Amino acid sequence: MHLPPELRDSVIDLLQNDRAALRACSLTCRPWLPRSRHHLFRSIQIEPGRRGAAFRTLLDANPDIGQYVQDMEIFGSGSDIPIERVVRMEWPTLRAGPQTPYTPLVQRCVLDNVLPKSTKVLRRVSCLRVVAMHIHSELVDILLRHFSAINTLVLNKCRSATFADFIALPRGFREVSCLKLHDIHWLRPTPPSAVPALYRRTLKTLVLSQKTDVALLLTWLVAQEIHTTLESLSCHSSGQASAIAICSLLKAVGSSLRHLAFGFSDVKDPTALLQRTELSLEPCTGLRRLHIYCTNSVRYSSMPSLSWILILLSKINSSHLYTLELSIPSSHIPALNFVGLSVVLSHPRCACLQRLIFHVHLRGDRLEEVGERIKSRVSSLTAKGLDVEVVGTDAPS
């Protein structure tokens, strides 16, 4: 039976989450092969060991498969190399000593064993995720040779000897518009002025986890004027240095910033820090979406103060803000001043606000109960037409 191409592709698309069915479709007949491969190889995870070696063998024998790979995640550890040996690697010291067992040379061999011989096979990959690797010049050279069309770069649990060594990787990808850094560390900070800028200013989205040195990175971005294209920022302040760096970036970006996600990490008194550093949302006159993380890794003996949230919101200076999100643990809800929140959001500067979303760290029946309680506390806002939602999320790890 002959099926029209568009109907055949629609049938295969419905099976995109069923890998066994997709493999069966790929063996049905030649016309079914391209669409099946599109879903089978669109997102790939490779790691050292047999799986990584098998992937390289497959691409060496069938290089045309590489054109279907769009999202690739490369692990610096696998079944043969525990991730702890990469993440907790020994830092170089002035004192001579035995070489760490997981050296850059070993890592280069790992990449050579999982990436195809031809550097042209994976040229269509647009999103690259690098996990648990020691970033150095040889690693950067190998990745740049294989991946030239990257627009999204995600680095997770990576380490480097210096900030200059680390930044060489995102610098090398000239078309990167989205950069996400999770749990990144370098041993020695490099003065921002000593690190060359990106070849092209294409960065639009920047996501920084709580375990990343925000101060040095953002200072470098501003010093090199890389912030000029930034539209979306997610970061946490862990102290005065990072708060000052964030404040400087917000002033530099100004009306260009459309989306902002912000919170504090390991800060005992966020209110005092806000006032001391004059961190404010006033420069963000083009803000469309704001997400505030009410969580803080500091353990409190009593209910924490969330007055900093109202201070931050009272400085909103965007007539375009249409969505406000608050992520909050259920235990912190009593500390949130709902009366003050309603007053601040009723101000004319928030006239365009359409949605207020509470992300509560709860699941199940209790979420519904807490949700009704929150909505009753902001009933004056719903009466004015604001859409209030309460959704459950898992607590951050």
Task: Give a written overview of the molecule.
With 397 residues, the chain is α/β, with parallel strands linked by helices. The protein has 15 helices and 14 strands. Strands 1-2-3-4-6-8-9-10-11-12-13-14 form a 12-stranded parallel beta sheet. The chain is globular and about 65 Å long. Mean pLDDT is 85; it is low at 78-102.
| Residues in helices, as a percent range | 25-40%
Q: What's the arrangement of strands in the largest beta sheet?
A: 1-2-3-4-6-8-9-10-11-12-13-14
The count of helical stretches stands at 15
The computed structural class is alpha/beta
- Report the uncertain regions: 78-102
Q: What is the CA–CA distance across the termini?
A: 52 Å
Number of strands: 14
Overall mean pLDDT stands at 85
DSSP strand content: 15-25%
**What is the alpha-carbon Rg in Å?**
24 Å
- Given the C-alpha coordinates, what overall shape results? globular
Question: Helices and strands, in N-to-C order?
Answer: HHHEHEHHEHEEHEEEHEHEHEHEHEHHE
Question: What oligomeric assembly is this protein in?
Answer: single chain
Largest sheet: 12 strands, parallel
